[in-house]
Design goal:
11-stranded mixed β-sheet; 24% strand; Leucine-rich repeat, LRR (right-handed beta-alpha superhelix); 7 helices; alpha/beta; LRR_dom_sf; two-stranded antiparallel sheet
């Protein structure tokens, strides 16, 4: 890729009227591009597609791309929207450096209708930009944040604030200082959250299932277990807690509900998710 990119930058064959010392004007336009997958060439993406506006008018709705030290592992927008790829490239300010928190926030403030956001950080950018996601509060269902080197920890208050501002979230993966932040079981904070994953190293022991059961029992109300949470994942192998319930009258959130918690193996998780419906993998 490096070799081909260098040849492309120096090519003058498409502009015979130009003096050899002046690069020809490149007219490539990807005007119908909807899905973009690229990995490992983040700096070339910035250098190549930014200045030449190759994807400026593309109707992109699904992107996986690395820019500097930030990887948009999955970024998708709802029908009728666009991911504004040109603006996304501007996060890196035309350099090989990492997009900073302000640049990320600026992008999310101008991009509406996001459905999936999965980001992988190679350095700590902080979480000030998270507030900008409120512009997609009516559509954002899946949010996953990962840090390659170290963990960018969210406090329980920050996680709760995230839920209150993004009420349509169904799937969330973050690094938290608490194995299971109590707020994810709060129906008012997360009315639709079905799957929660904690990327931070877990220190659960043999009594974890009992602690979870006690915590969930505390959330019972007269109308039953109000939280839609079904599956909890932790970073260490095999720590996947499946919340199962049987409703006496056949209605999931009404009437008397019996709740069970069981530990399932990692390899079973994809099968469980398929059983719950068409949902993406944990980020």
């Amino acid at each position: 890729m490096d070799e081909g990119f260098a040849k492309w930058k120096g090519c003058t064959k498409c502009g015979q009227d130009n003096p050899p010392s002046i690069p020809a004007k490149r007219r490539i336009r990807l005007t119908k591009l909807k899905v973009w997958r690229v990995d490992g060439v983040g700096h070339m993406m910035t250098d190549l597609f930014g200045p030449y506006n190759l994807v400026q008018d593309s109707p992109l709705v699904d992107v996986e791309v690395a820019i500097g030290a930030l990887a948009f592992v999955n970024l998708a927008v709802s029908e009728g929207g666009t991911l504004q790829f040109q603006r996304l490239l501007q996060c890196a300010n035309g350099t090989r450096g990492s997009p900073d928190s302000d640049g990320l926030g600026e992008y999310f403030r101008h991009t509406k209708g996001l459905v999936k956001v999965t980001l992988s950080f190679h350095q700590n950018l902080g979480f000030d930009w998270l507030e900008a996601l409120e512009g997609s509060a009516d559509t954002l269902k899946y949010l996953h944040l990962a840090s390659v080197f170290g963990d960018m920890m969210l406090t329980e208050d920050e996680i709760e604030g995230l839920g209150k501002s993004l009420q349509k979230l169904e799937m969330l993966t973050v690094s938290s200082s608490h194995d299971l932040p109590g707020c994810v079981l709060n129906f008012e904070s997360f009315p639709r959250l079905r799957y929660f994953g904690n990327r931070a190293y877990s220190y659960l022991n043999a009594g974890a299932t009992e602690r979870f059961r006690d915590l969930i029992q505390m959330r019972f109300t007269k109308t039953g277990f109000s939280s839609p949470l079904r599956l909890i994942r932790f970073r260490l192998p095999g720590q996947n807690y499946l919340i199962e319930r049987d409703s006496v009258d056949g209605v999931e959130f009404d009437g008397n509900t019996n709740v069970r918690i069981r530990i399932i193996e990692d390899w079973i998780v994809p099968e469980v998710l398929r059983g719950f419906g068409d949902v993406p993998r944990f980020g």
